[in-house]
Amino acid sequence: QVQLVDTGGGLxxxxxxxxxxxxxxxxxxxxxxxxxxxQAPGKERELVARISSIGGxxxxxxSMKGRFTISRDNxxxxxxxxxxxxxxxxxAVYFCHAMTAFGQEYxxxxxxxxxxx
Length: 117
Hints:
four-stranded antiparallel β-sheet; 51% strand; globular
């Protein structure tokens, strides 16, 4: 059974930091491209960051560059997103996403991030 469990969200003040985690199981994590997406109320889901299977290549949405860092630990089947200098416009539900080497896609259940004073 495939599972992606997203954790680490919460309420943080503007300028603060959060670290999201995604625990994966039930598929071959080490050969999968992993991503974080987010969806704000009334908006479409958007890509936040992506990391290649061995972690050598990362991609970020323009608004996250320099503030967010995606990383992975293949030994722990885990994906992370370090978010710094958070802004109110970063408020959204953040989802972990997996694309396997065979083209299968899986989603986490999402974790709420709220940036507010």
